[in-house]
Write a structure and sequence with these properties.
alpha+beta, 3-stranded antiparallel sheet, 259 residues, 32% strand
Length: 259
């Protein structure tokens, strides 16, 4: 086995995954509430190298095959994790009273067919039943863990998520924060799912802005620079693969000519 060939191939695969992650960030620079994804890389497990030889010592071990330890051999790189960056995105004023944005570390809580999910995309609508929902029909949940009815007519949403109309409180948005954001994973459509250890609780450092939407936190210029770096990383590993392949070919040709 040509070890360098496999090591370079592993690096090329990681570089390709890095490019895919960056391309996804670029594709969502205009997606409301989108949070960019990183790619964390670590060293692949090392392999112990031993030298097989015959013991030249005296009996009773003389002539017995032994394997002295030479050292550790690195096997390249591999993906460690793909965490989400939850930094605040820019707020964009729309003037639509059903458009909501969160300043701080909270999430809107929504009910989907797959269960409770969380989002920073506050582009909501009033559905046919008069309930506050996302544009694809998922109900927005209140502090009572139920849907929120929003009758026709002007209404106001306070900074704490309280919805009122004509001085009457209609409900309050359930704003959720998490003690372990690493366990909060993207599910697509700007939604996130608690994988079981995110530790959700009522948000204490979040305010709602009515008539605003939060933009994507993906940066075009930074993503383009990162994409170029990933491409060069891939090309470097690609050249190593070609070199290893050419060296192996020459070795095989040399052995054939020696015979």
């Amino acid at each position: 086995m040509v070890r360098g060939l496999y090591t370079a191939a592993a690096g090329a695969l990681v570089a390709q995954s890095q490019a895919d992650a960056i391309a996804n960030n670029l594709a969502n620079v205009n997606t409301t509430g989108f949070k960019r994804t990183l790619l964390q890389v670590e060293s692949a497990p090392e392999i112990g190298i031993y030298r097989f030889q015959t013991d030249p010592g005296s009996a009773p071990h003389k002539g017995v095959a032994v394997a002295p330890y030479v050292g550790a051999l690195g096997t390249g790189s591999q993906i460690y994790d793909t965490p989400t960056v939850f930094s605040q995105g820019p707020l964009q004023q729309t003037g639509n009273p059903l458009d909501l944005a969160i300043e701080g570390s909270g999430f809107f809580t929504i009910q989907t067919p797959q269960g409770v999910r969380y989002t920073r995309n506050g582009q909501f609508v009033r559905n046919a039943q008069g309930l506050l929902s996302t544009t694809n029909g998922n109900l927005v949940l209140g502090t009572n863990r139920g849907p929120i009815a929003v009758p026709n007519g002007p209404f106001q949403i306070a900074a704490d998520g309280t919805i009122a109309q004509n001085g009457q409180t209609l409900g309050q948005l359930q704003l959720t924060q998490f003690g372990n954001l690493v366990a909060l994973r993207p599910e697509g459509d700007s939604r996130f799912v608690d994988t079981g250890t995110a530790r959700p609780s009522t948000a204490t450092n979040a305010t709602v802005q009515q008539g605003f939407l939060e933009g994507s936190n993906a940066n075009v210029i930074r993503s383009m620079v990162d994409l170029i770096s990933a491409q060069r990383w891939f090309e470097a590993n690609e050249k190593v693969i070609y070199t290893q392949d050419a060296t192996t070919g020459l070795s095989i040709t040399g052995v054939g000519q020696a015979k």
